[in-house]
Amino acid sequence: MATHIKSNIHWVGQRDWEVENFHGMEFKLTKGTSYNSYLIREEKNVLIDTVDHRFSLQFVQNLEMEIDLNTIDYIVINHAEEDHSGALPALMAKIPNTPIYCTENAIDSITGQHHHPEWNFNIVKTGDTLDIGNGKKLVFVETPMLHWPDSMMTYLTDDAVLFSNDAFGQHYCDEHLFNDEVDQNELKEQCLRYYANILTPFSALVTAKIKEVLSFNLPVDMIATAHGVIWRDDPTQIIHQYLQWADNYQEDRITIFYDSMSNNTRMMADAIAQGIHDIDPGVAVKVFNVSRQDKNEILSNVFRSKGILVGSPSMNNVMMPQIAAMLEEITGLRFKAKKAGAFGSYGWNGGAVDRINTRLMDAGFETVVSLKTKWRPDGKAVNECREHGRDIAKKWALHELNNIQSITSKPVTQCAQTTASVDPSTATVTSKTVPATAATKDVQIDDARDMLCTVCNWVYEPAVGEPNQDIEPGTPWNEVPDFFLCPECGLGKDVFVAIEQSKAS
Ligand code: FEO
Question: What distance in angstroms lies between residue 7's CA and the mean position of ligand 1's atoms?
Answer without folding.
Answer: 26
